[in-house]
């Protein structure tokens, strides 16, 4: 047989055919802003919002005498000031990329920026929570660390903290249904936790996964399951320390505990400028976002972090 | 810490008059090299250091290379000195929010109740919340009565304060409380001193400010120049860096 023309001497002109559809990006679950009450500053005004609540009046019974008024009680207030800050990111794309790259770079980058913005603001709220929320340690576990793994007794302590502070629940009771293997779920507080703690959460008494809920109507995308009066959402974004062993924040959130503040109209803005906005030869385009934002603990009586390590 | 500007070439220049003391400079990017020029001592022959260089990749603490003119007549005669102390020190900050937590190291059963804590700067009348005390743990920690509650503080020193009621301002008498055993945490609830009242007094705002990541370099007394010396700071950031390796 004569010389065979094969791909060693006569190969394809290209090494690969680029699939135009980009592969899916990993998207972390943004869980920290889910439970914050939203406030807006009007534009053309200050960047600081002042929020106020009154302290409860003393409700000890006061029997009025017939001939005299009771001593007046002075109303006490508690103020929280929150200043919004501008967060942002920008990406520059060259015209060459837009001309020669096969995929839809600009569209995908816009989507990537939107994801980045939500995650960035989620991290701000997470960091506010880590900085300012009261903390309780897990101590009843058996892993030998000073702060132990999650146990049922430890999980009861933040719930007791919230109960003792008259915290309102965040979720209503999920009623049971006739579906086999499902059941009702108590009205509860939300708990933000790290995905690495899922095995420890699953080991808690009375844990039921979301699949066992009587109804799926109110299940969050990041929700893992429920224990007594606590519904757990998990994410890779949850706070974990750099200690050895790492300490994880499991933050129990009740009603009215967290706030997020933005400026009306320009709360978040995606800014995409066409080629040539800042160069003579139309060779660069910019894409980015700005977000006027901050988060605050509105009342630390209604939020508490349970610190734990991993089993 | 993360480098927000990785892969971008940048320069930053600043001229300043030295105080003679160690000085920390904030540079708008994470520098790979800093060149300090002493314009006042540029031609000095009397122990002046016209130039100093710092490189991020040379990691010895306080490392700096100085070029000292020792013979101006010779024109090209220099002496290079490697500093071990008081040279350059990276002082980058991670950004984000500072912690408002500290741990309890003791609580007295007294009037007023005094809480000892790991070093943390509190100010009088700030509101704190005490947690992680009480009985619900393998070894009871005591002071059940103050657990999970809010108090105003009266600062005694950097590691202790006494408690008073948030509303009435009366000192807390813990004489009859369960004795403290171990542990406990303090969370600073608000940075606002006199709870915000701008009509009556200046108020401390912005307790939740998120600090940016700052790239800082401290220039020690050996490199910062003598007092009143005019200095030029030039910071560089590499874009792409090619290591050409052994060309022999």
Give the key terms.
heterodimer; A: 7-stranded mixed sheet; 5-stranded mixed sheet; 4 helices; B: 248 residues; mainly beta; Elongation Factor Tu (Ef-tu), domain 3; 6-stranded antiparallel sheet; 6-stranded antiparallel beta barrel
Structural class by SSE content of chain A:
alpha+beta
What's the total count of β strands of chain A?
A: 14
Tell me, what's the shape of chain A? Answer: extended
What is the C-alpha radius of gyration of chain B, as a whole number of Å? Answer: 27 Å
Percent of residues in beta strands of chain A: 25-35%
Low-confidence stretches of chain A: none
Oligomer state equals heterodimer
Assign an overall shape of chain B.
elongated
Distance between the termini of chain B: 36 Å
Query: From N to C, what is the helix and strand string of chain B?
Result: EEEEEEEEEEEEEEE
Low-confidence stretches of chain B: none
* Largest interface chains and counts: A-B, 39 and 34 residues
Our Rg estimate of chain A from Cα atoms comes to 27 Å
Please explain how this structure is put together.
The complex is a heterodimer of chains A (311) and B (248). Chain A is α+β, with helices and mostly antiparallel strands and 311 residues long. Chain A has a domain at 147-257. Chain A is 17% helix and 29% strand. Chain A is built from 4 helices and 14 strands. The N and C termini of chain A lie far apart (68 Å). The mean pLDDT of chain A is 90. The mean pLDDT of chain B is 83. Chain B contains no helices and 15 strands. Chain B has 2 domains: 10-94 and 212-237; 101-188, Elongation Factor Tu (Ef-tu), domain 3, CATH 2.40.30.180. The radius of gyration of chain B is 27 Å and the shape is elongated. The interface between A and B is large, with 39 and 34 residues.
